[in-house]
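I am writing to request your help with a piece of structural work I have in hand. I am sending you one protein, given as its amino acid sequence and as whole-number tokens for its backbone shapes. Kindly check, if you would, that the fold set down in the tokens agrees with what the sequence suggests. You will find the record immediately after this paragraph:
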Amino acid sequence: MKILLTGGAGFVGSHLAESLLNDGHELIVVDNLITGSKENILHLEANPGFRFIEGSILDYKLMLKLVTECDSIYHLAAAVGVKFVIDNPLDSLITNVRGTEIIFELAHIFHKKVFFASSSEVYGKDAVAPFKEDDDRVMGSVSKSRWGYAFAKGFDEFLAVAYAQEKKLPIVIGRLFNICGPRQSHNYGMVIPRFVQQALNNQPITIYGDGKQIRSFTYIDYVVNAIKVLMDNPQAFGQLFNIGNSKFISIGELAQKIKQICQSDSEIVYIPYSQVYGDNFEDMFYRVPDTSKFEKLTGFNPRIDLDQMLKTIIDYHRGS
């Protein structure tokens, strides 16, 4: 099968690309390399089934050409990372809305099945966790730019469901929760690689806010397998699924754990959100998924040990 993977030079995309190639598929990766990195996919270039194109999902003519060449689409391309989205609100909105609209439109015209990578951000600042797929969503004010990403991804989900219902587009939506693993960059607000780099360098481990925020972390290998399992199951089409880990930890506890595993002398310091993101920032306190819908359909269960995940990631950073 020939697969089009948008955003394939990013953290999640590069791991998915590697796995799809190992499964024997031909793969076309398109990425504008704004938040992705060519280094993430250099090891794939020797594979005869791999082709990389530096380009944008906003380029309609390019996407038209690539969609006609493929059998299915994994749409991961997006403006990602809290820091990047806040610093680039307009580009983020246009990429996440118009880019996704182009993908869905062309997939419908040429009858391609699609996986769409959404985000746990769509739940907004609801304090009731764990989140279920059909829960109400609580969004912040439009004056706070961090919610633009959540609104855009939410719109994309509505668009996906509309295409599935009205046009019978075979599309499945995965809401991804705090993924971690090798090759994840700390440059766009990703907390684990930032803490690990600081701990290994015996620099202050910087916690934004009070550290009481609750998060759950999922290892990249599980996420890649979950995405593929959903795409291979016709019962998943037209539906959305949480993809994540129901076990949770506070950010303060995460910092302590990383410091301990690294055997670091780093001081843990707390920085007000305003110093990092400006005065107009608002965070979500909980981000924990209910994964029962996904597990019931697939039989998959994360069973991921956070300590083992962190040790693997720390070893990667030590060797890089």
Remarks:
- Residues 89-109 form the longest helix (21 residues).
- Residues 15 and 221 are 8 Å apart (CA to CA).
- The mean pLDDT is 94.
- The two ends are 33 Å apart (CA to CA).
